[in-house]
Amino acid sequence: MRFRKDAPPRWLRRWCPDEHVQSVAEIAPERLQARGIRALLLDLDNTITPWRSRKVPPEVAEWVKQMQAAGIQLCFVSNTRNLGRLQWLSETLGIPYARGPMKPRRAMLRRALEMLNVAPEHAAIVGDQLFTDIWGGNRLGIYTIWVHPMHPREFIGTKLSRQVEKWLLKRLQPYRIEDGG
Asked: Engineered SS bond to 79: which of 24, 44, 63, 102, CB 3.0-4.6 Å?
């Protein structure tokens, strides 16, 4: 489902994604290419793997291969503090990663765009949190895809922010477009 991002009140727009999907596996490379998107900045925890896990679900691993085969560049932009796990997943999946101040700050996202040599208008960010992934992407004018968290286990701070996310999502409901495109 998509959202009309220009319609919500200004204070709410910063957390409004362009699109919402249940899983990254729903994101088709052809749809991205039709939008001029050549690169995806990927959150890690509860987007690509369950929180703190090295296990990549088979459908996600297949999706990564599909994106790479289609020429969509990928880069991890994770707030994880576990650099060893990030490096291991980077090597295992063949996806580089950018580090820097945590999202929603823009430095890590800018670094990823520079690494991939892609302008913000040709990139999208995919993540499970409105307050980090979506807000960070919106701050740079990157197309934002909010994915449903893949697992209920997560950082305690994230559990708390989910309560505020629910409140915000109720306010974003009138701006949904359910045409699947």
From this structure: 102
How do residues 24-34 score in pLDDT, each as one tens digit? 999 999 999 99
| Number of neighbouring beta carbons within 10 Å of residue 69 | 9
- Calculate ∠ Cα 31-75-19, nearest 5°: 35
Its sign, for the CA torsion 43, 156, 138, 112, is negative
Cis peptide before 29 (omega within 30 of 0): no
Mean pLDDT throughout 162-179?
Answer: 84
| 177 neighbors 2 (Cβ within 8 angstroms) | yes
**Which residue's entry shows tokens 């063949």?**
94
Tens of pLDDT, residue by residue over 1-14, are: 889 888 899 899 99
SS3 33: helix
- Contact between 65 and 56 under an 8 Å Cβ cutoff? The reply is no
Residue 146 to residue 94: CA distance in whole angstroms? 23
